[in-house]
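pinning this so it doesn't scroll away 📌
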Amino acid sequence: MALWTAAEAAEATGGRATGDWEATGVSIDTRTIAPGDLFVALKAARDGHDFVAQALEKGAGAALVSRVPEGVPDDAPLLIVDDVQTALEGLGRAGRARSRARVAAITGSVGKTSTKEMLRAALEPSGRVHAAEASYNNHWGVPLTLARMPRDTDYAVIEIGMNHPGEIAPLAMQARPHVAMVTIVAPAHLEAFDDLAGIAHEKASIFEGLEPGGTAVLNGDLETTPILEAAAERHATHRISFGEGPGNHHRLIEALVRDGTTVGTARLWRTQVHLKVATEGRHFAMNALGVLAVVGALGADRTRALMALGTWAPPAGRGTRERLLLDDGVAAGTIDLIDDAFNANPASMSASLAVLAAAQPQDNLGHVGRGRRIAILGDMLELGPAENELHAELARDPAMKSVHVVHCVGTRMRHLHAALPDEKRGRWTGDAESLVREAARIVDPGDVVLVKGSKGSRVSLVVDAIRKLGHRRDMPEAEL
């Protein structure tokens, strides 16, 4: 079945279609384009019009353009519009308007993408789910997700992010969610905001897009919770809070973090449930509570959602844990690698360090003799004028007491390196590439290694280097 016909797309965008084409998908990248996709020639780092001919050669059903590019035949299937970004937004609005899906939108300073994936998994037993790809949560990612929504979708999950004030509300109004969730408000993007309250007001603006009768789901344990609650009062018909405090509608009573899993007890309104996610971190259990609130508000099956969460693990780079069998050239034995190298701010750093602190290294496996908890931390970006102090303050995080060695990457992380006690201070390098060359010397069998940093710090290169020291080994069932 066609996702978009030429006539439908032209009506949605106010554009002019050449030919009577059909598109089975929507793409912005010729590297991943599939035959039948509508290629959207966005202008970003490069002008997408330069790739239209390539997209058509790869089998694109048509291209959304503001001009006919050079090298494109006169009879090529095109949708010609005044502005490609505006047209993509129109296509997204039309995709949302024609859908019967129940829609959820998620934002927050930490955990947007992992919570989006958690909600996707929780909803799948109840129907056909459409969710944003990767971290497609900005001015082009949200309309692209909506434009890609299949006609027969039952539930849609839209991730909404921001870098500057005023970005979330317009995207929420495009998504028009029935339920909107704020995971947490924490210091992130502070260079664009005066203070944490400013971030909270921006996050709370997601509720402005709620459909009539909509539900606001929010973290009830925050310093800025009153800001979220005030916005929910203005824009939502229903409000559900989650957290550990006794006043929350969904309350986490207990959570135990073990190798490869987090299990706990929670109370959903007056119903006590056993909660499990197949990854480590109290914060994952907390967000699972919010997910269950969203599931209930969407009218999906909460019991099936609980069962699905029991086997859920985060996507790569967002806290996944794997066991690596090291080659004999390094040393015989295994290490546990926690890959959290996609994003970082003080709140997510603290959560990841808590996971590391709870992990159990293995003794008597390597040259060191004692298994260690090792943190490899890259710069946290976009923290504003207080960034140096925020990096140094990590040395006082309670979890640091249980970390044996901390290696630091980046100019900002040098402030943490200087603040660490001598016995914990590992290597400092100005860039990730320098630490990559030392990967074999900083890990030893029996270690548990956390790699965490903002994407721009490129500490994912260190993750790749550590993986290349050996190969993945599935963790035994008893250890999960």
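📌 and the second one:
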Amino acid sequence: MKLKLFFLGFAFTFLNIQAQNIPLYVGTYTHGDSHGIYRFEFNTETGDLTNKQLAINIDSPSFLAYSPDKKHLYSVNQSGNGFVSSYNINTDGSLSLLTRVSSNGKGPCHISVNKSGDKVVVSNYVGGSVSIYPINKDGSLSEASQVFNHNSENEASHAHSAKFSNDDLFVADLGRNAIYHYKLKNNDYKLESPSIVKMEGNPGPRHFLLDKKSEYLYVINEYGGSITSIKKTKKGFEQIDFDATLEETYKGKNKCADIHLSKDERFLYGSNRGENSIAVFKRNSKNGTLNRIQNMSVHGDWPRNFSLDPTGKFLLVANKKSNNISVFKIDQESGKLSFLHSINSPEPVCLLF
């Protein structure tokens, strides 16, 4: 009887450990030791990253996105003239290539999927264009259904990120210092505004996010070392706040990269490449404004994308130049970060839970 109880307890513990492990896919540049998209197992109780494997050997899959049902994965590929790839996620976590199509612009750097899972949008940094692709029922991609060229005679576009929000599509254009707004009309996206708010100087809007109700939009500015906070109004949009991401004592060069909200939307995080830190902000839930409360070292060099795990208890940072992923614990009361550990990973750029 005791032996039976022992084995039952062991089995329960083993299943519990397995249940705590979730996949983390890592997009990379393949200029050095990296060979494609990697996969780790992440323990949502301990924050440990284990069982690293090469999910697929493919060229510079720098940014990744899931389908809503997480049966397929999508990437941009910063090689040649630029590509977009779709993958089937196999039962063992490896990836199989489904389709590979032109990104319709050089330097594709960002990809996202709409909530219904029938469209992908890709931002081409070098080409200055934004491409929309239909997703087929099997997860494969058709050729682009729409391509928007943001370049003008006087200004070069550098489209850096784009996201769907219900019937809206927003695009951060670092080259033209603008957040573009498109509206879905008769199954096509039409330009609503080339700039939802005026961006003073040359801040270089890079990535952005919307809150759950799509009432607020937060933009991290690559050149400006700052975050622009925007509120949606009945008449359009208005800027409500502007905050520095850097410590006042830091005087070196810096380029901001990524931005995320905590699960409860009480805190906002942004990455600094140069200061090599994550800036932590407390968010006012009533008026949407921000107050910076911490700059935490990333324990690495050149933090690109970072991600919060699905439990909201951990924050993971992809440090490209130092070839490591750093794991931080999030204090659920204060929102502040404490460093746990890091693990080697070749040229990490994007972390996808």
